[in-house]
């Protein structure tokens, strides 16, 4: 299944914040949206999922497997969310419900889309917790988000997004709040799950060094517009846009700092 975004425009209270973004994610591709804060990358992801905040409106075209999904009724889009397209949000503290157990939250998408009973859903939650390398899956599914570490919460969020086996995963800065060691583990996990499941990936980040670990193509955004796109190798070795060149300098500086600390 493929995703095609054409001339996406997002306005918030009449102010244009995303201006004509276009990109494609072929079946099995790993595409990154990269840009500084305010570039429009997270709003683009929310528009793809039909989750824009109040006061925001999107126009243009978002086609999933040839079907236009931008602007379709929420009831129809709900059949796609989680089932065909999953999303890992930037901050698991806000993405996870604090008064529901981890297992119940992982199982929710499965119960909605696959109509299985509570016992089977619990078994599935345990299996998914194990699949994302959460420790002691049988016990951890009975815990609440505040009882998990930051890295464990992010793994639980990934398990939630992948429980119903979607064909496309959107990951919105999933490692921003994690330290470098945990970040590396989560990135390896994401890449492994995407590759083993044959999924497509849209990975959103402000860090070109992070993007280089998971994506093969990049779309560089600034002020709500695409300023450069192409194979990631080209963006790393011969960036044409000053924006991409700045991101590359930042990534190089981060890598140097990491080597100094090591």
UniProtKB/TrEMBL annotation:
Name of the protein described by the UniProt record: ABC transporter ATP-binding protein
UniProt KW Membrane keyword: yes
Domain of life where this protein originates: Bacteria
Annotated keywords: ATP-binding, Cell membrane, Membrane, Nucleotide-binding, Transport
Alphabetized PROSITE patterns for the sequence: ABC_TRANSPORTER_1 (PS00211), ABC_TRANSPORTER_2 (PS50893)
Record-level Gene Ontology MF annotations: ATP binding
Nucleotide-binding found in the keyword field: yes
Family matches, as SUPFAM superfamilies: P-loop containing nucleoside triphosphate hydrolases
Source organism: Microbacterium capsulatum
Residue ranges occupied by any ABC transporter domain in the UniProt entry: 3-248
Localization per Swiss-Prot or TrEMBL: Cell membrane
Similarity remark: Belongs to the ABC transporter superfamily.
Membrane association type: Peripheral membrane protein
InterPro entries given in the database record: AAA+_ATPase (IPR003593), ABC_Ni/Peptide_Import (IPR050388), ABC_transporter-like_ATP-bd (IPR003439), ABC_transporter-like_CS (IPR017871), P-loop_NTPase (IPR027417)
Main location: membrane
Position of the signal peptide: none
């Amino acid at each position: 299944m493929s995703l095609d975004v054409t001339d996406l425009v997002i306005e918030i209270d009449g102010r244009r914040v995303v201006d004509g973004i276009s990109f494609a994610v072929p079946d099995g591709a790993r595409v990154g949206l990269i840009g500084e804060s305010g570039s429009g990358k997270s709003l683009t992801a929310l528009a793809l999922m039909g989750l824009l905040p109040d006061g925001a409106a999107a126009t243009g075209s978002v086609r999933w497997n040839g079907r236009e999904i931008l602007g379709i009724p929420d009831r129809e889009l709900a059949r796609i969310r989680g089932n065909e397209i999953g999303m890992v949000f930037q901050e698991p503290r806000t993405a996870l419900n604090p008064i529901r157990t981890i297992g119940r939250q992982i199982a929710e998408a499965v119960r909605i889309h696959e109509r299985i009973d509570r016992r089977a859903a619990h078994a599935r939650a345990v299996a998914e917790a194990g699949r994302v390398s959460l420790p002691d899956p049988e016990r951890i599914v009975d815990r609440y988000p505040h009882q998990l570490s930051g890295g464990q919460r992010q793994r639980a969020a990934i398990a939630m997004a992948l429980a119903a086996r979607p064909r496309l995963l959107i990951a919105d800065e999933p490692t921003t709040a994690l330290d470098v060691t945990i970040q590396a583990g989560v990135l390896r996990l994401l890449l492994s799950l995407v590759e083993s499941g044959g999924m497509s990936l849209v990975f959103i980040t402000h860090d070109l060094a992070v993007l280089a670990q998971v994506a093969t193509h990049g779309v560089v955004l600034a002020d709500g517009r695409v300023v450069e796109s192409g194979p990631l190798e080209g963006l790393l070795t011969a960036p044409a846009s000053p924006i991409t060149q700045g991101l590359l300098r930042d990534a190089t500086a981060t890598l140097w700092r990491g080597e100094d600390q090591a």
